[in-house]
Every structure is written in structure tokens, then in C-alpha cells.
Amino acid sequence: xxxxxxxxxxxxxxxxxxxxxxxxxxxxxxxxxxxxxxxxxxxxxxxxxxxxxxxxxxxxxxxxxxxxxxxxxxxxxxxxxxxxxxxxxxxxxxxxxxxxxxxxxxxxxxxxxxxxxxxxxxxxxxxxxxxxxxxxxxxxxxxxxxxxxxxxxxxxxxxxxxxxxxxxxxxxxxxxxxxxxxxxx
Length: 185
Hints:
Layout: H1 2-20, H2 22-38, H3 54-57, H4 61-181
């Protein structure tokens, strides 16, 4: 409303300035007509158009206001259409931002969950790698023990065979000696 009052005030001020000089224009026109009718200059054409009265030269302020009002209404309608278009675009973008915000939240949660799972899996793999390494060390140690025991077993078998052979030889000698002693020849 304030801009309309300012606009109307400016129009009234302009009209008061124009209407203040209307009498001067009218008097000048009248004087020019009188001088023109008494002037018998040959260089002036005979059928010179007369100026219309001063009141017809000044546009009617109410028609001008109407034109200004029509133009202002037209601009207001264009601005209203632009505002509606911008508001609908704003609403669409705001809704899209909400959807995107929720999606970002969901993806952030998924990212956190997957990061925890990845850390757990990495820890599990490190544990399994440690167990595998320990198992390999244990396997090597047991293989060495097995080899030593097999060597010892071979050695004991060999000793046992020697002992059995020596014992058999001694028993054989004793049997021969008893056979000789019991021989009645």
C-alpha cells in the first residue's frame, strides 16, 4: 500500500507542475495565432496548420493513470506468475533436499555398519593368520620330533636286533655246549 501512495503522490506532484504551466501554454498559443495572422511574410506558407488548443495538448491525467495502472497490474501478474514458479521450484528442491538428507543418513549408517564389519573381519583374518602361523610352527616342531623319534626308533630297533642276535648267538653257544656236554661219545 505504501508504494501506491508514493506513486500517486508523485503523479499528483507532476500533474500540479504541468497544470501550473497550462495557462502559459494557452496564452502563448493565442499570442502565436494573433502574430501569425498579422504576419504577412512571403516565406511563410499560406496554409499553415494551426496548433490545437492548449488543453488538447496536455494528456488527461486519469487516462494516463489508467494506463499506468494497467501496466502495473500486468507487471504484477507477471511477477506473481514468476513467484509461483519460483515457489514451486523451491518446494520441489526442498522436498528433494529432505529425501537426499534421509538418503545420506541411511548411507552414513550403512557405511558405519560396513566399516565395523570390515574391521571385525580384518581382526578375524589377523587372528586366523596368527593361528595358521602357530599351526605351521607347531607342524614344523612336530615334524622334527617325529624325525628324531623315527631315528631313535631305528636306532633302538637296530640295537634290539643286535641284542637279539647276540642273545641268540649266546643261547646257541650254550645249547651247543650242553649238547657237547651231554654227548656220550
